[in-house]
Amino acid sequence: MSTTILEQSSTLTTPPVIKTTTLLPSSTNVDAASTSLTKKPQERVAIIGAGWYGCHLGVQLKKLGYQVVIFEKNSDIFMGASGFNQFRLHKGLHYPRSYVTRVQSLKGFDHFMEKYSHLTTQVDYNLYAIAKRNSWLDFGTYKQVMDATKIYNKPFNHEHFGLTNLEGSMLCDERVLYHAAPRKFFREQFTEQELLLNNPVKKAEQVTITSFVSPQFEEDDNTSSSPECSDSYEYELKEEQNRFAKIKINDRDDLTFDWCISCTYNTFLVTPSLNIYYEPCISLIYKDIRSDPFPRVAMTICDGHFCSLFPYISGPEEEKRIAQKYANSDLGVLKHHTHGSITNSTSSTTDGQYIIPKTKNVVLNDDNVDATDFTKRPLRTNTTANDDDDVAILYTLTSVAHTPLGQYNSWKKAEERRLQVEKNPETEVAKLIPLFEQNILQFYPAFKQHFQYHSFFTSMKTKPYDATDSRECTVEREGRFVSIMSGKVNSLHVAEKEVLKILNENKSRRR
C-alpha cells in the first residue's frame, strides 16, 4: 500500500508539500451481508476551506450526487479572504495588463450573476479613472484595452464629483458583493455533517487500496438489472488489480474520501507550478457623514500605486433599512441601468423587494450634471443623523501602496505580520490612516469633509509573482489531491469546470 501524506503543524513556515511514503497493505474486510452489491456507492469529496470556492464547489458537487464534507478551521464560513476584501464583482477593468484575467472576469461576471445575483447590488456611479501622473498606462490606452476586450464603459466627466488630478474617467457596470449575505446563504446549503466548523485539516493521507470487483456487477455489465441476477445465481469472483486511491483526513478512518480539494488560497496544499508569495493586507472602512449621502459613488484610480473607494454593504436587509430611513426625504438612492441610461423622473423604482426613490435631476449626460449638487453639499448638523451603524453608509478604502503589509515567501511570517497589525490598532493602524487619506486626497480633495474613519479589517492574499498582475484561476491535480488557485470570485466557473473535468476523466479511466 503506498501513501501520499500532506501534513500541517502549528509551526508551519510554508504550506505543506506532497511527500510519498510506503506502507504495508492492510487486510480487506468484505461483508457481503451488509454491503449492497447492486448500488454503486457515491464518491466522497473532502473540501478544505469554506470560502467562495469551497462553498460553491460543495453546492455544485452535491447537486451532481457527490457526498461532500467541507472542513473549515474557523468557527464560521467566509472567515478568510472571501469574507474580508473590497467585495467588487469584477468585469476586468482592474486588470489592463492581463488579457487572460480580463476575459475570465468578463465571462465569469455573467456566470456568477446566473447563480448569485441575489448576493450583489448595483452601484449608483461606478467610476474607473486614470491618474495624470505616475500611471503605468495613459487613459487613451486604458480605454482601448477595455474596448478591445468588449468591457462596457462610458466616458464620464469626473469633475462633476469633485475629483481632480485625473487624465480621464469612465463609468462601468461592475456590481458590489454583499459582505454578510453570502455567509448566511451558504450556511443554509449544508448540514452539520457536511460543514465541519472548527475542524482544521492538519494531515491528509492518500492511500492506494486493491479492490475486488465481480464481473456480474461491473459498471458496463447489464446483468445486474436482469431477472437472472438472483441470490441463487452463481458467479465467479474476478480479481482485478484495480487500485483505488483514497484520502484519509487527520488519521481518522471515518474521514476517508475519494478526493480532496484544497480551496485554501494555497495555504494548505501548494500548487507546485506557481511561484507565489503571501501578502497580509489591511482595508479601512469609512462612514459617509454628508447630510445627503446619495448617490453612492465608487471610484477606482488606476493604473499604479493609487486607491479605491467602494461601497461596503452587508446585505439586502441593510439596504432596506437605509431606503426606509430616507424614503420620506428628497434624497433617495439613484439606481442606474446596466448600460447607464438614467431618466430624469422623480418616480420610484424597485430594486429587490423594496422601493427606492430616485434622486432628482441627476442624469448621465455630462452637460446636464450640476457639479454643485455633489461637491457643495452641507455637512450634517444633526449629530444623530447617519450615526447608527445599522443605517450607516459605509465604504472600504484600499491603497495599492499601503493596503499590503508586506510580501512574504513564508505563510507563517505573513500571518505574524497580519496579527501584529490587527492586535495593535492604536499604533499600527493609527499610523496607516493618514497615509491612506493622503493617497485619496490628491484625487478627492473633499474626502475628509465627506467621510470619517470607522474601522478596519485585515486579510491574507496569495499572489503569483507576475508583472502583468494576473489573477487567473488555475486548478492542478496531484494524485487524488486537487488544488485551486484564484484571486477573484468571478472565476468560480473556471474552477468548477476544471474540477469536474478531473473527476470525470478519472471515472472514464476506471471503466
TrEMBL record:
FAD dependent oxidoreductase domain mapped to chain residues: 44-98
Protein's UniProt name: FAD dependent oxidoreductase domain-containing protein
Organism, as annotated: Naegleria fowleri
